Amino acid sequence: MARRPLPRILSNGSAPLARSRELARTAADSATDVLHPLITITRGLRRLASAGRRRWVDTPKDRRGALLFMVASVVLVVALAPYGPLLAVITLMAAAAWQGRDRTPSAPDGPDASQAQRLQSLYDALVPYFSTAEDPEPLYAHGGDWTNTFSEYEFDGTGRIAHLVIRYPAYFTDAEPESRARIEHLLGAKSGRGREYHFAWDEEANQLTVRVLAPLPTDIAAQPFVTAPGETVLGFTDPTGVQRTLPLTHGAHGEERRDVPPVVWRTGIRSTEPHLLAVGQPGSGTSTLLRSIALQALHHGDVVIVDGGGTGEYACLTGRDGVLAVECGLTGSLAILEWAAQETERRLIAAHRAHQAGDPPPEDTRRPLWLLLDRPSAFTHLAAADDRKDPQSLLQVPLRHGRPANVTVVVADQLDSLDALGEPVRQHTRARVVLGPATAEQLAAVLGAPPHTTPVDQVPPGRGYARLGVGPVHRLQVPATPDPYDDATSDAHRQAVLDLLPPRTTPADEEPERLEPGRVEPDAVNLEKAAREKVPAAAGATEAEATAEQAATGAGVETTTPRETVPEETVRKETVPAEADVTEAAVAESSS
Ligand SMILES: Nc1ncnc2c1ncn2[C@@H]1O[C@H](COP(=O)(O)OP(=O)(O)OP(=O)(O)O)[C@@H](O)[C@H]1O
User: How many domains does the chain fold into?
Assistant: First the structure.
């Protein structure tokens, strides 16, 4: 049945309606105040009556006659006594008022003894930081009282502070990161370790708000994310940090559905942070982040992977549709990165020509190309030892000019190898991620700003912080995207990753062998593996070079070629000089 619309006066929230609603509410409140004694007496009479009924029911039948006789005698005496009925009514009303009073215990006004003790000890701990000898009316003083300084507080079920608003004197140097860090460290320690705290400094009001953060969910597995082209989900964060949520499945078998706030990184022509740098301690989950990005990138673009770690963690991507190459050796990496630099230039030239002619950019310049590099610093050392070119030097063009050419660079490396990263990498990767344990200085150095939360003692893999350009620092949990070929991977997670992999376009026997964990020596990267691939001669790496590399390292070099789809003319260096003038113009234009 069709629902009848409400009368207009009820359905729209006009001002007169709001006023009348307010009037009605005030009238109801006043009536409740006036009628309160009557309500109390009525409630008391009801309680007295039910008490009398209960008494009657509880009295054994043989005694009921005597009880009735006694009540009747009392009634008779009262009726005959002077002012008896009047006194009886007054007594009954008084008894009813007493019985009908509101007996719900009122909520305690302040904290209980142990909570007050906690607040007092916090106050005492803050005294040296928030007071000076010259202050004639100190807000914080030894032996002082916390009630003037903590305007709001909440405790959790275990009696620990969950929320606190702290007033501090205006002369406290709240603009200085060191001063803030001292207070944050102290509050974190005094309020209970093992939890994460968020600190919001209101410099205008001289007020600090401390909030305990719930742990980020660690049970979100790789899955198709509902995002627009050009958007990549780096991971998940707090609801207060971002406006948007993504519908996701949780749990070991994806049994639960929930909306979770993501950290979304936008790439492409209009991106202000077109390239990303992710760093972390070994085992913190940077390779997992790269795998997660690769799986998302493959929806709309092509991917090149350069794996300096050489643990074979990207083998599942080899030969898949859209994966142009998965390189683990120095020669192959140099070759594919050289091609990528030339491809960036080709795209710029083509787009520039189209602009000149007033045409839209050609189709083949618009498909996103992703260069994902895991531990390129390992190749830097190898190249220096072998007197070869550093693959990072080939990233200059994609990093500087990748944005208009739809080329995105993602570099993952270890925190202690930051110095080995080239200047272009550090300068052009404005999206930053730090995973795993890191000191406040390391976080500030990589992210460009300290996070507003305290670090946790136990950091799960994939946990860290992300900052896009000059935006806020977000807590981050990367979705679990493990290597499906790793024996330690759970079946559910393995299946989730396998489901996201595009179909293979290269025959399986073209794939590199899987590395046996026991056979890999950390320093030797994966150079132990037999040379089984043809290095693309056109891309500048000759057979002779490959042989020289093998001879120098005493080991084989594994490389894989870019997929057949890589246009030959884009790989050949000879095609570039003819257009050099156009390249320079396009490059100059894009950099301006
Ligand atoms: N987001 C995540 N959720 C669950 N587990 C994760 C996550 N990220 C990483 N892991 C697990 O942590 C371990 C290390 O991850 P990963 O190889 O990605 O780290 P890494 O930083 O690349 O370390 P390394 O450089 O030593 O390879 C793996 O077992 C992986 O499955």
Answer: 2
Separation of alpha carbons 495 and 22, rounded Å: 58
Quick one: CA torsion of 442, 446, 450, 455, rounded to 10 degrees? -50
Give yes or no: residues 288 and 149 share one domain: no
Domain containing 209 — which CATH number? Answer: 3.30.980
In a domain, 506, yes or no: yes
Domain final residue, candidates 157, 185, 213: 213
202 plus 248 within the same structural domain: no
Shared domain for 269 and 305, answered yes or no, is yes
pLDDT above 60: residue 571 = no
Rounded to the nearest whole angstrom, what is the distance from the C-alpha of residue 382 to the centroid of ligand 1? 24
Mutate to test the pocket of ligand 1, among 216, 234, 288 (most ligand atoms within 8 A of CB): 288
Residue 437 contacts by C-beta under 8 Å, 6 or more apart in sequence? Answer: 281, 284, 455, 459
Tokens at 216, concatenated? 């980020």
254 and 207 inside one domain:
no
Helix segments in 160-267, DSSP class H? 177-191
Distance CA 523, CA 279 (A): 19
Q: Which of 213, 242, 259 marks a domain boundary? A: 213
User: What's residue 470's pLDDT?
Assistant: 94
Domain at 406, CATH number: 3.40.50.300
Q: Using one digit for the tens of pLDDT, what is the confidence trace for 432-444?
A: 999 999 988 899 9
Q: Check: CB of residue 164 under 8 Å from CB of residue 210.
A: yes
Residue 60 lies in a domain: no
**Of all atoms in ligand 1, which is nearest to the CA of residue 235?**
1
Q: Which of 407, 413, 369 is nearest to 392 (CA)?
A: 413
State the residue range of the domain holding 145.
Answer: 113-213
For ligand 1, whether the C-beta of 283 sits within 6 Å is: yes
Map residue 188 onto helix, strand or coil: helix
- Residues 339, 209 share a domain: no
Ligand 1 centroid to 460 CA: how many Å? Answer: 10
> Which residues make beta-bridge pairs with 178?
none
Local confidence band at 562 (pLDDT 50, 70, 90 cut-offs) = very low
User: Do residues 299 and 391 share a domain?
Assistant: yes
29-38, 320-329, 378-387: segment of lowest average pLDDT: 29-38
Binding-site residue numbers for ATP are 280-287
Task: With cut-offs at 50, 70 and 90, classify the pLDDT of residue 61.
Answer: confident
pTM beyond cutoff 0.90: no
Determine the atom of ligand 1 nearest the C-alpha atom of 436.
21
